[in-house]
Design brief:
about 5% helix, about 90 residues, 3-stranded antiparallel beta sheet, 1 helix, single chain, mainly beta, globular, 8 strands, 5-stranded mixed beta sheet, about 40% strand
Length: about 90
């Protein structure tokens, strides 16, 4: 599992490696009122792969990382798409 901790001025990211299939990304430190869509892509991708995140009662978002991206030797870019909230 990879974890992203977000604060006002910085973020900290856990590490995943190529072929680390079936991984979950947890994202904390955001003030969200609903679960966001999470878009995953790598630099050579034609389009992002979209996954619906789950938001728990502590405000932590959990989402599965697409295995097809973990099988490639590229960094994975993650975009959080949220409508509303803080």
């Amino acid at each position: 599992m990879a974890t992203v901790k977000i604060t006002k001025d910085a973020y900290e990211v856990g590490v995943l490696y190529q072929w680390d299939n079936n991984q979950t990304l947890t994202i904390g430190g955001l003030a969200l009122d609903e679960a966001p869509e999470v878009h995953f892509a790598h630099p050579n991708a034609e389009k992002a792969i979209v996954r619906q995140g789950e938001l728990d009662s502590n405000g932590v978002v959990t989402v599965g990382v697409p295995n097809v991206l973990l099988e490639k030797p590229y960094p994975i870019n993650v975009y959080i798409c949220h409508n509303g909230g803080a």
